[in-house]
Amino acid sequence: MERTYRSLHRQDDLVHFQVVVKETDLDIGVRRERFSPELVKRAEKLVRDCRAPLEEYIRRDPAFLKAHDPYDPLPGAPPLARKMAAAARRAGVGPMAAVAGAIAEAVGRALARFSRDVIVENGGDIFLRSACIRRIGVYAGDSPFSHRLALEIRPEDTPLGICTSSGTVGHSLSFGMADAVVILSPDTALADAVATAAGNLVKDPDHVQKAAGFAALIPGVTGALVICRDKMAAWGRVKLVPA
Questions:
Q1: Distance between terminal CA atoms of the chain?
Q2: SS3 for 143?
Q3: What is this structure's pTM?
Q4: Angle ∠(21,26,32) on CA atoms, nearest 5
């Protein structure tokens, strides 16, 4: 899939670059004066350092990879696996539903030591830290809302996870038919897992309010936006502006 949606989160004042390690494909933005080839290498190492313990753990516990329901990792599981499992348990899904958000946050928080503004996008799941107001566009496939709306994120609400699940766009596993479910949380792994869980609830456009209400009940979630064709529901700290 061509990642044309990446234009929706890129910021003109930041330098964006890509880091690809196996299935992990990140788009990273940092302040222009902080960008360097050394920072790119550092980001690549951060991704490898995230993936290696997780890959080794999955070889030891393959059920972790395949679980669609909450799953308790084995003793000695790496911190990233435990974080994924904890987030997924709160959402009622399997731990791999949180992997993209967990990696985006781990890389983003590490890079935030070098750049005051950082955005890390991993397959539609975003970690953002910003010193100014940012606008993140919403891609919702063939919905009439697609490319017409953006989320306005204030700096005091960051660091923030902004994670999207869709049953009609992309390759991520979803049992629903939502065009876009966007979840906001300071815990990016949780935002990722809840986006999947809420998306699973949307079987037709009349289910958007139900999915937003589900997300609203999960502690740690600060906002939700659910789009299915011509219906939309929003809850929490969600400020929508024209794209």
A1: 23
A2: coil
A3: 0.93
A4: 120
For 105, the domain range is 4-242
Q: Which two tokens stand for residue 27?
A: 């788009």
**Structure tokens given for 219:** 């502690």
Q: How many CB atoms lie within 10 A of CB 10?
A: 14
Which CATH number covers residue 58? 3.10.520.10
Per-residue pLDDT tens for 97-142? 999 999 999 999 999 999 999 999 998 899 999 999 999 999 898 8
Please give the Cα distance from 35 to 70 (Å, whole number). 39
Residues 6+ apart with CB under 8 A from 106: 46, 50, 80
Q: How many CB atoms lie within 10 A of CB 20?
A: 11
Domain count along the chain: 1
Whole-angstrom Cα distance, residue 141 to residue 8? 13
What is the rounded distance in angstroms from the CA atom of residue 169 to the CA atom of residue 153? 24
Q: What is the DSSP string of 130-161?
A: -SS-EEEE---TTSTTTTTEEEEE-GGG-SEE
On whether the CB atoms of residues 37 and 123 are closer than 8 A, the answer is no
66: number of Cβ within 10 Å:
10
